[in-house]
Amino acid sequence: MPHLLEVQGLSVAYRTEDGVVQAVDDVSFFVDPGEVLCLVGESGSGKSVTCMTLMGLTRTPNARFGGTAYFGGTDLLQATERSLQSIRGNEIALIPQDPMSALNPVQRIGNQIIEQIRAHERVSKSAARDRMVELLTRVGIPRARERSRSFVHEFSGGMRQRVMIAMALSCSPQLIVADEPTTALDVTVQAQILSELAGLCREAGVSLLLVTHDFGVVAEMADRVVVMYSGRVVEEAPVTELFEDPQHPYTWGLLGSVPRADRPRAERLPMIAGSAPSPLRPPTGCHFRPRCPHELPRCSEVPPLASRVEGRSEHRDRCWLQPDDKRRLRIVNGAVGLATPDDAGLSLS
Predict the structure, then answer these.
(1) With contact defined as beta carbons under 8 Å apart, do 69 and 75 qualify?
(2) CA separation for the pair 182, 161 (Å, rounded)
(3) pTM, to two decimals
(4) Under DSSP, is residue 32 helix (H, G, I), strand (E, B) or coil?
(5) What is the DSSP letter of 305?
(6) Residues of the chain with CATH 3.40.50.300
(7) pLDDT tens-digit series, residues 120-151
(8) Which CATH architecture has domain 5-222?
(9) Burial, 25: exposed, middle or buried (Cβ in 10 Å; 0-12, 13-18, 19+)?
(10) Fewest CB atoms within 10 A around its CB: which of 17, 25, 38, 105?
(11) How many other C-beta atoms are found inside a 10 Å radius of the C-beta of residue 66?
């Protein structure tokens, strides 16, 4: 079966007064029909730029692009603006981080959904209005016909995000790109929104490309996971394999920083030492090298993204360490984590 979306060697760079910012560097991944793929990584790792580039929303005079991103036979990076306008909202829908700024504050909620439906389909205004009410009802907004006349400031954060989900589903897309859709919501509302989004995607057979920081969300939602760091993919795996056998030290650090209810409470949560590098001046070789306690001399070379675990071709990582060494080094204080530079006897360098 062909992939719904196939990204190969995606690179995005911006010319600035201070130099060239390499926001995304040689990123490759795919999304299959009906699949949920999660992009994970800390702020500045290139997740949002990757998604916005696929939607054609980073095209500026100072931007440079490389690679390919095929969706249904169309290379999204080479597509004309008119072609992208027919794809955005219709075949690929976006749920942004902040619905407050994504929605028009001077236009009623219902009219905004109607406008999107009629921009892509030849239907009457009354038919579009009926579909709008049906969509708002499906995403859990009570008294949908009445509430559709409200403005965005009259809705809570959770209700606004439900409106964005309804808008994303309005033209029956094949792929939804959700860029941290629950960032500003409390955990209870977040769980409700994600549950509804997952259920609606399964019901409609829609693929989901989900950007998140939260490994709890990853465990609940994902079929496969792509971990990004400093503009590069450092690990890619089916979700079960990623949690059971993580291969990259950056992934160990992310997993180790998550509080565990099944373990004794620590005095202090583990953390990854140092800070993410500047995209203006990234380190040579492995970008994670300055923060990694297991640095090898060979890490001055860029490791290829490759399968290093025997019998697991879908599990790829970008680290020179051998799998047996990784399984030993990633256990810190009885759990998966990243050793600090002060931990003795853990480094191979």
Answers:
(1) yes
(2) 8
(3) 0.90
(4) coil
(5) -
(6) 5-222
(7) 889 999 999 999 999 999 888 899 999 999 99
(8) 3-Layer(aba) Sandwich (3.40)
(9) buried
(10) 17
(11) 13
